[in-house]
Amino acid sequence: MAYKIAIIGQFQQGKSTLLNALLAESFADIGEGLPTTHAIGEYCFGKEGDPVNVFDKKSHIPTDYDLSEYLKLDRNKEPLKSVTKVRFRLPKKSLSEIELVDTPGFDASGPDGAADAAIAEAAIDSADFLLLLAPNTQLDEGYEGTKGYIKLIRRCCDSGKPFSVVINCKGSAKEKKWDPLGNDDIVATIQAQIQQDGGAPAPIDGHSPIWTCNAAWAWYASAAVDPSALGGRAKERFDAIHDDLDRHFKGKVDVDQIRQLSRIDPLRDFLTGQGLTSCSVPTLLKLRSAWTDYRKAIVGD
């Protein structure tokens, strides 16, 4: 049995970039400034050559695509524009116990905003574990831009499901917020909000209730293994990140150092149970299930 981990958050905060970084490949489409994900993306364990299953509004029977063929298609045009769910079955050991679910973002304006939110809500309801991706900005109920995140924090706290919170450190070197270790004030603000709402997120490294990472750095480090394989928007994104890092590190960009600074590896280990972490999502959910079964069998609850 694979446990479903839904990655949720507002639109354009890096959910798809984070998913690509966790998988160390570019599967989920990424965008700049506008909502990109309008369908559920399910990433589960499979074997080499398994087709991509594409579901649309017209039929419950999926259309199958070769993975390389699917990744070349424009997902904002037909036949993919009316897609509701895409299932990737990948030969990755990291997916042996979990299924990662990429969701549309909340709070997008325009004709797709309400539909995107409804799809994301359904993903929350069907998930076993929630990974809330938060921005590296201060929370303020009086500020329209963060009201949505306060609502999402409360949604996680009230869901009855285990969850963790990850702050994606977006921005450039000039803003001094792109370093995952440079956002202590924002971590404190989000932690205070969660405590106020009665939540208790699962600590990702055993003791940190809020985890900071830079999804773009992590994705860049993975893509740097073979940048010639990138095309279109992904190549543009890679070049932009490289230029920013090159300026910041004065021409001495060390890919292994960037991966380490991104803090993606402890997060991946926690979600997949494949690393050396003492507690992971699969372990947590197995213990939770065992406790529920015990209460039913012994206590009668």
Residue share in helices? 25-40%
Please state the CA-atom Rg, rounded to the nearest Å.
19 Å
Q: Which second-level CATH architecture applies? A: 3-Layer(aba) Sandwich
What is the structural class?
A: alpha/beta
Ends apart, CA distance between termini: 25 Å
| CATH T-level fold name | Rossmann fold
SSE string, helices as H and strands as E: EHEEEHEEHEHEHEHHHHH
Q: How would you sum up the major sheet?
A: 9 strands, mixed
- Indicate the overall shape: globular
Physical arrangement of strands within the biggest beta sheet: 4-3-5-2-6-1-7-8-9
Poorly predicted spans: 31-35
What attributes characterize this protein structure?
alpha/beta, single chain, 301 residues, 9 strands, globular, Rossmann fold
Summarize the structure.
The chain has 301 residues and is α/β, with parallel strands linked by helices. It has 10 helices and 9 strands.
